[in-house]
């Protein structure tokens, strides 16, 4: 049902109500709050008729079909009460009342109490509606939290034992003893131990760690950089390519010089062709000298003492060689 607001048994206009309009032709329904003597029940000018009739107690027929209402009443027939000035979310049964609608409270029905309608406060907490439409809980002894859902445990009863900014936790009051959640750089039951930042070693690739009080510094081996020695040094950082070469970053520096490569190919090709020609000539001479020696030895072996003349044809020229049994091999 409706509740709150203002109201009473006596129908008295509040002192803040201003006088009503004075032009009966401009406004068909008039509210006279200043001259009650002119608004006596049943009085109407002679010859004036109102149909339907004005409310017999709340107004009178002032002119044809014009009702002048008693203070606190309004409407075409003066049968509607006037609410208390400033009433926001309420109505009236008698003049100057402000009976609040459901979900609203206060003298002017301007306090929203719908936030507490769902009874959000647990463990016998008391819900208090705020003017903003929100609520807050007033918790019973031994409970805390926004909705009084947290039982006071060791962290609340005994205070936090945690050092260095550690957070006290007790499973929302259900734990028998408190424990500490330590920030980075601290350890121990109460966060009382300053942790070694180098344990475990954060430096990668066999970097050497140095603790600097809550932080660390890595001395990286050759070829690695970054805070934890995790990034390989670019092989092109030292600009190793000469003669206009372009360094391409892979697992090692690759120097590529177009002119140098082409020159090398031309030189190697030329040398290869010359070497092949010379090699073939050398092998040919070696083969013919071997045949010549074999023929000479054969002729000398079967010679009976007379001189012999043998014609030997070489690939590049014709030559004549004379062999005798007395001739030495050095003469050939």
TrEMBL record:
Keywords: Disulfide bond, EGF-like domain, Glycoprotein, Membrane, Repeat, Signal, Transmembrane, Transmembrane helix. PROSITE patterns: ASX_HYDROXYL, EGF_1, EGF_2, EGF_3. Gene3D superfamilies: Laminin (2.10.25.10). SMART domains: EGF, EGF_CA. InterPro entries: EGF (IPR000742), EGF-like_Ca-bd_dom (IPR001881), EGF-type_Asp/Asn_hydroxyl_site (IPR000152), Notch_signaling (IPR050906). Disulfide bonds join 69-78, 139-148, 182-191, 220-229. Residues 1-24 are annotated as: Disordered. One of its GO terms (molecular function) is Notch binding. This is Delta like non-canonical Notch ligand 1. The chain crosses the membrane at residues 256-277. Residues 46-79, 112-149, 151-192, 194-230 form the EGF-like domain. Residues 12-22 have a biased composition (Pro residues). It holds the Pfam family EGF_DL_JAG.
């Amino acid at each position: 049902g409706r509740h709150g607001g203002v109201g009473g048994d006596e129908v008295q206009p509040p002192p803040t109500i201003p006088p009503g309009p004075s032009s009966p032709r401009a406004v068909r329904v008039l509210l006279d709050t200043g001259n009650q003597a002119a608004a006596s029940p049943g009085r109407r000018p002679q010859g004036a008729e109102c149909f339907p009739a004005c409310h017999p107690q709340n107004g009178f027929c002032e002119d044809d079909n014009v009702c002048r209402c008693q203070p606190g009443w309004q409407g075409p027939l003066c049968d509607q009460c006037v609410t208390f000035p400033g009433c926001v979310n309420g109505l009236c049964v008698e003049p100057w009342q402000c009976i609040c609608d459901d979900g609203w409270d206060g003298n002017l029905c301007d306090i929203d109490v719908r936030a507490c309608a769902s009874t959000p406060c647990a463990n016998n907490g008391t819900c208090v509606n705020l003017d903003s439409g929100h609520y807050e809980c007033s918790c019973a002894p031994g409970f805390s939290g926004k909705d009084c859902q947290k039982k006071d445990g060791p962290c609340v009863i005994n205070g936090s034992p945690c050092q260095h900014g550690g957070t006290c936790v007790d499973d929302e009051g259900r734990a028998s003893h408190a424990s500490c959640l330590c920030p980075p750089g601290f350890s121990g039951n109460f966060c009382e131990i300053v942790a070694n930042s180098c344990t475990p070693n954060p430096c990668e690739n066999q970097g050497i760690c140095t603790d600097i009080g809550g932080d660390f510094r890595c001395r990286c081996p050759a070829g690695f950089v970054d805070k934890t020695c995790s990034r390989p040094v670019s092989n092109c950082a030292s600009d190793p390519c000469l003669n206009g070469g372009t360094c391409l970053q892979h697992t090692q520096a690759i120097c590529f010089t177009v002119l140098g490569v082409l020159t090398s190919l031309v030189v190697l090709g030329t040398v290869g062709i010359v070497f092949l020609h010379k090699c073939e000539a050398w092998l040919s001479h070696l083969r013919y000298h071997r045949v010549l020696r074999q023929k000479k030895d054969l002729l000398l072996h079967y010679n009976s003492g007379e001189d012999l003349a043998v014609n030997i044809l070489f690939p590049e020229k014709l030559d004549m060689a004379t062999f005798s049994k007395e001739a030495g091999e050095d003469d050939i």
